[in-house]
Specification:
- The protein is α/β, with parallel strands linked by helices.
- The chain has one domain: Rossmann fold (3-Layer(aba) Sandwich).
- Helix content is 34%, strand content 18%.
- The strands form two sheets. Strands 1, 3, 4, 5, 6, 7, 9, 10 and 11 form a nine-stranded mixed β-sheet that branches. Strands 2-8 form a two-stranded parallel sheet.
- The N terminus is likely disordered.
- Bound molecules: S-adenosylmethionine.
- S-adenosylmethionine binds next to α1 and α3.
- Keywords: Methyltransferase, Transferase.
- GO terms for molecular function: methyltransferase activity.
- Its EC number is 2.1.1.-.
- InterPro entries: SAM-dependent_MTases_sf (IPR029063), SAM_dep_MeTrfase_SAV2177_type (IPR006764).
């Protein structure tokens, strides 16, 4: 097994007095790596907006389907997973390396608790590689430079931005991050994205007061966007079928899952 872990230069200290997104997300998907403050805020948000647990689970299931689809049907062997979250049952490297043991995965997150649990993300196959980078999505150049130690940027990469651009509050900045990262990867690379939406046809209106509560009581601050705004993150890319849809229904086969106000899509760089 080849693995690496980039040290936490300047990473934030673990703060158990304020709810953190990585830990509350872990709470909503039924994990144990969270504190009392995360459980309290998680319950309050779920009280206002019960579908949040469905969103968190649907997002993880989308991740599984998208990684399998790209590894099996498009031969992708490199994954850059930005905004990884806490390790859970099936992480990107486990899903990808089941299909292709030589797959390389670089994880990126800036939460100190994800860094503390990063060892569980670095348990790849002997033929593959995994790395963890403690970095902020607002600095894509630093992420790309450090990821180039593990990933070969002359070969296709699946860039995974699941539930992460919603923490970049400025629309232009969020678009710029997606554009910069996709500019660094070759033709045949993919952008895999999920993002919460305000669109009411998928139940997004209820998300707004819950996010206002979150922004007063937890960290980091979050925003939801319309489908049209999220579509701009795919500029210059070609969306694969079925396009930008509730992440729960994206290639869900014959299941008919509950629609959630979290869009998911996969696009290819032509
Ligand atoms: C909603 S969770 C999503 C986790 C995983 N991608 C998934 O879809 O299940 C968002 C993750 O983004 C991380 N995050 C938030 N802001 C970030 C930033 N500025 N830079 C890097 N990671 C960030 C959080 O720590 C958290 O682990």
């Amino acid at each position: 097994m080849t693995e690496g872990r980039t040290p936490a230069d300047g990473s934030a200290q673990l703060n158990t007095g304020v709810a953190h997104n990585a830990r509350v997300w872990n709470y909503w998907i039924g994990g144990k790596d969270n504190y009392a403050v995360d459980q309290q805020v998680g319950e309050q948000v779920a009280g206002m907006f019960p579908v949040i647990r469905d969103i968190a689970r649907a997002d993880r299931e989308f991740l599984g389907r998208a990684v399998r689809f790209l590894a099996e049907e498009h031969g992708v062997r490199q994954f850059l997973d930005i905004g990884t979250g806490l390790p859970t049952g099936d992480n990107t490297h486990e899903i990808a390396q089941r299909v292709a043991p030589d797959a390389r995965i670089v994880y990126v997150d800036n939460d100190p608790i994800v860094l503390a649990h990063a060892r569980a993300l670095l348990t790849g196959t002997p033929h593959g590689r995994t790395d963890y980078i403690d970095a902020d999505v607002h600095d894509p150049q630093a992420i790309l430079e450090r990821a180039s130690g593990t990933l070969d940027f002359t070969q296709p990469v699946a860039v995974m931005m699941l539930g992460i651009l919603n923490f970049v509050l400025d629309d232009d900045k969020a678009r710029d991050i997606a554009t910069r990262v996709m500019a660094a990867v070759p033709s045949g690379s993919f952008l895999v994205l999920t993002h919460p939406t305000t669109d009411d046809e998928v139940g997004g209106a209820g998300q707004v007061p819950a996010m206002e509560f979150w922004n007063k009581n937890a960290t980091p601050p979050i925003t939801a966007r319309t489908g049209a705004e999220i579509m701009t993150f795919f500029e210059g890319l070609e969306l694969l079928e079925p396009g930008l849809v509730s992440c729960s229904v994206w290639r869900a086969g014959s299941d008919s899952p509950v629609v959630v106000p979290q869009y998911g899509a996969v696009a290819v760089k032509p």
